[in-house]
Amino acid sequence: PGPVNADEAARAAPFHLDLWFYFTLQNWLLDFGRPIAMIDSFELLYYYDEYLGHSMWYIPFFLILFMYFSGCFTASKAESVMPGPALLLVVPSGLYYWYLVTEGQIFILFIFTFFAMLALVLHQKRKRLFLDSNGLFLFSSFALTLLLVALWVAWLWNDPVLRKKYPGVIYVPEPWAFYTLHVSSHH
C-alpha cells in the first residue's frame, strides 16, 4: 500500500466517543444503581450475579473486549493518538474496571486479559502495527485499573479483618466489605 495522507489517516479510525461514553455510563448506572433502586430487573440481575456466578458474565465480557481490542490496530503511527474526549473518559472507565475487578473478585480473569492485550500489542508492534484511538483508550483504561488495584491492595495489605476475610495469595478486598467494615460502622 502507498503512503497515507493526513486527511485519510484522520478519517480511518475515529474514536468512538458515543460507544465508550454510553458504555461507561451504562456500567456505572447498572452497578451502582442496583443497590439504590432494586427496581424487579435489578433483583434479577442480583440473582444472576450471586447464584449463577460472575464467570458466566465476566468471561464473555472480557472475551468480547479482547476481541474488540484485537481489531484496534492501524498501520499509521499518526492514527495512534487519543483525542481529548478519550482522555477524559479514561479515568471513569478505569475506575469502573477497578470496581468490577475488586467487587467482582475477578482479578485473575482481568490480569489474564490485560496480559493477553499486552502480548498482542507487542506482537503487532513487530508487524509495525499501532493501537488506534479506541485501542489506546481500552489499554489505558486497563493499565489505570491495574494501577488502582495495586494501590488498593497495598493500602489494605495489613488490615487484619480483611486479611482474614480474603485469605490466600491473591488478596483483593471488595470495596463494599471495606465500606461496611470501616465506613458504615463509624456512622
Molecular structure report:
This protein has one domain (18-183). The chain has helices spanning 6-12, 17-37, 41-51, 55-70, 84-104, 107-126, 133-155, 160-165, 175-183, and strands at 73-74, 130-131. By secondary structure, the chain is an all-alpha fold. The longest helix is centred in the last third of the chain and has 23 residues, at 133-155. It contains nine helices and two strands, in the order ααααβααβααα. α2 packs parallel to α5 (84-104). The protein has a two-stranded antiparallel sheet with strand order 1-2. The mean pLDDT is 85. The radius of gyration is 19 Å and the shape is globular.
Number of domains: 1
Low-confidence stretches: none
The span between the termini is: 65 Å
Count helical runs: 9
The main sheet orders its strands as: 1-2
Helix content: over 70%
**What proportion of the residues form beta strands (DSSP E)?**
under 5%
Rg over C-alpha atoms, rounded to the nearest angstrom: 19 Å
Q: Which sheet architecture does the biggest sheet show? A: 2 strands, antiparallel
SSE class: mainly alpha
- DSSP, total strands: 2
**Average predicted local confidence, pLDDT:** 85
| Shape summary | globular
Order of helices and strands: HHHHEHHEHHH
Pfam family, one: CLN6
Transmembrane segments: 51-69, 81-99, 105-123, 135-157
GO biological process, one term: lysosome organization
Organism: Propithecus coquereli (Coquerel's sifaka)
